[in-house]
Amino acid sequence: MNIEFDLDEEKMSDLTNNGDLYGLLNYLKHENRIKQRKARRAIVLMADKKTPKQLKKLVKQDGLIDLQEIIDDLLMEIKEKLELEKFITSNNVKKIGKYLNSQYSSICEIAIKSLGEIGGEKAMELLESLINSDEITEEMILSRKILRDLKFKEQLLNLTEKERNAFKEFYDEMNQRTITINIFSEKENGWNAYQENEMPVVFFSAKKVVHALKINNKFLQDLPSSILKLNSLEKLELEYDGLKRITIHGMNSLKTLDLKGNRLEDITILDGSLQALEILDLSENQIRILPNSLEKLRELRILRLNNNKISRLPETFAMLPKLEGIDLRNNLLSSLSSWIGKLTSLKVLLLSNNQLDELPNEILELSNLEGLDLSNNQITMLPNGIIQLKKLKKLRLNNTGLKLLPTEIHEMKALQELHVSGNKIETLPKSLTNLPKLTRLELVGNPLVMDKVQQKILKKLRKKKIDVMIE
Questions:
Q1: What pLDDT score does 444 carry?
Q2: CA 274 from centroid of its chain's CA atoms
Q3: Average pLDDT, integer, range 73-83
Q4: pTM of the prediction?
Q5: CB-based contacts of 35, cutoff 8 Å, min separation 6
Q6: Is the pLDDT of residue 6 over 70?
Q7: Distance separating alpha carbons of residues 258 and 402, to the nearest angstrom
Q8: Which residues of 18-36 are buried (b: 16+ CB within 10 A; e: fewer)?
Q9: If you average pLDDT over residues 61-68, what whole number do you get?
Q10: Neighbouring-strand partners of residue 442
Q11: Torsion angles phi and psi, residue 456, rounded to 5
Q12: What are the Cα distances from residue 144, in Å, to 25, 100, 185?
């Protein structure tokens, strides 16, 4: 089953943030080609002058030798990327344009985005050339988006009445289901033109067809009530704006609300609002207490609350029958209440980097759980019966002080990845070799006693082509 809250995505993000080339290279062997491409793209984007030498050294390590051909091509891609960066630094639009035809999609993407940042007539002309191509490609789609953003950035903030009417006619003619409007501003007074009586006519003329709206404005402090009038809006993105407060009423067609990276301490959801909401992202804010009104969001599937200051969860969470994924990483939680067991639809629970020292037994009632991350807490013992989580695919317990793995771990038949690095584990249970779907085992930083029994277990694991990391 495709988990929207994929632990692989989080792992890959951590590897990228930590500059872990070895970890990313291992994803080039992943059976999922999409993840292979994502890992390769991550390596290219993070590459600097030292990367080629590091790659040549890493490929000689056990387990990566079979990637020699892939890495040779990867080195060519990185070389092209480093050359391109020189022209980006000097804002050489003409030279950057030559990379729009690169055989590597990541290079094309970097070139397209850099043209969008530089702007100007020449940059827009180059982007237009990609859009006018007969073949529909990812590059064409990205170019169209960036070109549109450039035009909005240059024109939308300085519309005359005549131009507003022109935009009105333009959107009236566009009879398509989804229109995404991007509003950018680098000026503190840039939002002034869009207060209650000054919102562009396009918002009101197109409100029956606008389904997606993204606003970039770091000085935005509150949500203009005009936006609440877009009754057909299904997706609203307000990432990394300056929001300090937000009150929402209505918007009952909205399915995705993204408020990541603001300065929110509180969010008010009035009764009868957001009845169709499925995804809510409140990550990277200043939230300490969650509103009880969250219990009204009965269609909510994904809730992202990572990187806040939350010390407790309201019991009203138990009233969310469709909740499949919760991200609570990097908060101040010291305990979980027994009501957690009522979230029977939950598939992924991310709790790393909190202050937990134990888990309630009710967590064993999460019979549909597929991913659990408890890393960087103080959970030295797992609850008795952890093996009851029969659908668990990925379990992360890095840096928790864990001393033992359950002897009956072989009964967790669905387990694919087990991460227990940075703990106090001295011995591995023999039953570990009887996990039929295990593909990855991370044991780095444990005081393993390497006697004959333990060596035999590790040898058997590797013979089954399980990726075992112990150092």
A1: 92
A2: 23
A3: 92
A4: 0.67
A5: 8, 12, 27
A6: no
A7: 36
A8: eebbebbbbbbebeeeebe
A9: 72
A10: 419, 469
A11: -65, -40
A12: 32, 14, 20
Please tell me whether residue 355 adopts helix, strand or coil conformation.
coil
Task: Report the distance separating Cα 417 and Cα 408, nearest Å.
Answer: 16
Tell me which long-range contacts 240-249 makes (C-beta under 8 A, separation of at least 24): 240/216, 241/215, 241/216, 241/217, 242/217, 242/218, 245/221, 246/222, 247/222, 247/223, 248/223, 248/273, 248/274, 249/273
- Structure confidence at residue 69 (pLDDT): 86
Q: Mind listing the pLDDT tens digit for each residue in 262-309?
A: 889 888 887 778 999 999 999 999 999 988 888 889 999 999 999 999
Look up the CATH number of domain 161-419: 3.80.10.10
How far is Cα 413 from Cα 436, in angstroms, rounded to an integer?
Answer: 6
Q: Which residues of 305-341 are buried (b: 16+ CB within 10 A; e: fewer)?
A: bbbbebeebbebbbbbeebbbbbbbbbebeebeebbb
In our burial notation (b when 16+ CB lie closer than 10 A, e otherwise), range 415-434 reads bbbbbbbbbebebbeebbbe
> What value does the mean pLDDT take over residues 388-402?
95
Q: Provide the residue ranges of all domains of the chain, joining segments of one domain with +.
A: 7-148, 161-419
**Are 402 and 382 spatial neighbours (Cβ–Cβ below 8 Å)?**
yes
pLDDT at position 140 over 90: no
Which pLDDT tens digit goes with each residue over 150-194?
665 555 445 556 655 555 554 444 434 344 444 444 333 333 333
DSSP code of residue 382: P
